[in-house]
Amino acid sequence: MIGGKRFITEFPLLGPGDLLPPRIKGGLFKTFYGREATLSYFGRGALWAGVNSLKLSAGDNILVPAYHCGVEIEAVTMTGAELRYYDLKKDLSITAADLSPLIDAGTRAVLLIHYFGFPQPVEKIKALCSAKGIILIEDCCHALLSSLGEKPLGTFGDLAIYSQRKSLPLPDGGALLVNNSALSPKLPTEKPEFSVTVKKCLGMLLRAAFNLDPRNELPIPLERLAASFNRSVARKSGARYSTGLEINQERCNLAMSELSRRIMERTLASVVIRVRRENYSTLLKELTETTEVQIIRPRLPQGVCPLFFPLLIEGVSRDALQERLLKSGVGSYVFGADLHPTLPRNRFPNAKTLSRKVLCLPVHQELRAGDMSIIATTLRREVKELLHADAH
Ligand SMILES: Cc1ncc(COP(=O)(O)O)c(C=O)c1O
């Protein structure tokens, strides 16, 4: 709690109600996507397994987006594939016509990110991939429960990956959906340590109970308790379960925890979609575009379940603005600040700009219209103050 005010988190927090018995019999993936997915600890593990199932030969390349968080690119690199980057437009889109000239005899697949839940023109891109005899991998790590019209994202490509822990209050959770029966990726075999799952859940429950900024400290006795628990878990498991942007084969082989499955199977998809859409629409009404604050997606097409409300911040420092929002009790999220070291940034001007200027506002399912008003008012005020500070 900051100054007695509720802190608005960028991700949904776990509440005790989320741990009650499951509501969905068939599982969230079966119900929403029509087929079961392989559930992994991280989305990166799902991607690694998916790309490995292509059985690449030396010199094969995969088209990958120049704007990314880095770990998805590293997962592709780990399979031995050569990377072929493509730039995005400033609204984060890419078309089949943009991709077509990049495909050559060595191209085996295209990795397509549906940024922040907004669909790429995936039907046309799938048609291009089919015509060229290559695989389409949909990266739906931002797009759980999001659809193009009525068809869920992740059901167009040959493979799709998810990171459901970004949209739902889960201690862990990624997934691989296989739509092409010729591909049979290896399943993750290692179950996560129960103590780690419990530790993560307790941390999330405490954060929610105390309504803390996730970067703030817990009250001292709880902080000590958490620190000693963390030390004992770290001694046993090292960094294997860290949600930082590292990746290795050990992490890729981890399955999703049973506790995450339970929480997922309590999730009412229709509520998550409805509330995220309502919150996005409220922000669209409350935020007026200015030179400094540009709305990247000013329309919310039918079927979209937004992960965030992405803005392009111009003329003031994105990072300074994020810091000010945080101090005022509003969490926000930066995606892609550290582009993969193999990217020749200067040849990808839009990705470079997006990496420096995109700031995402929260719209998750625990927030309501009043929270959106607070976010909009706080943003306006902090931009004004930054401009004022810069002028002096
Ligand atoms: C677009 C994208 N793809 C893949 C990943 C990997 O997901 P995870 O963190 O669950 O491994 C992330 C997030 O880190 C992401 O943002």
Describe the structure.
This protein is of the alpha/beta class. The protein has two domains: 23-178, Type I PLP-dependent aspartate aminotransferase-like (Major domain) (Aspartate Aminotransferase, domain 2, 3-Layer(aba) Sandwich); 269-391, Aspartate Aminotransferase, domain 1 (Alpha-Beta Complex). It has 13 helices and twelve strands. The chain has helices spanning 28-33, 43-52, 71-77, 96-99, 122-132, 194-210, 220-237, 249-252, 258-264, 269-286, 318-327, 349-357, 369-391, and strands at 38-40, 61-65, 82-86, 107-113, 135-139, 147-148, 151-152, 159-162, 174-178, 293-295, 308-313, 358-362. It has a seven-stranded mixed beta sheet with strand order 1-9-8-5-4-2-3, sandwiched between helices. A three-stranded antiparallel beta sheet has the order 10-11-12. Helix 2 runs parallel beside helix 3, helix 6 runs antiparallel to helix 7 and helix 11 packs across helix 13 (369-391). The radius of gyration is 21 Å and the shape is globular. The relative contact order is 0.17. The model has no long low-confidence stretch (mean pLDDT 92). The site of pyridoxal-5'-phosphate has 12 residues, from helix 2 and helix 3.
Class by helix and strand content?
alpha/beta
The level-1 CATH class of the largest domain: Alpha Beta
CATH topology of the largest domain: Aspartate Aminotransferase, domain 2
What's the structural domain tally? 2
**Largest beta sheet: strand ordering:** 1-9-8-5-4-2-3
Radius of gyration: 21 Å
Q: Which overall shape is indicated by the principal axes computed on the Cα atoms?
A: globular
- Any guess at the CATH architecture of the largest domain? 3-Layer(aba) Sandwich
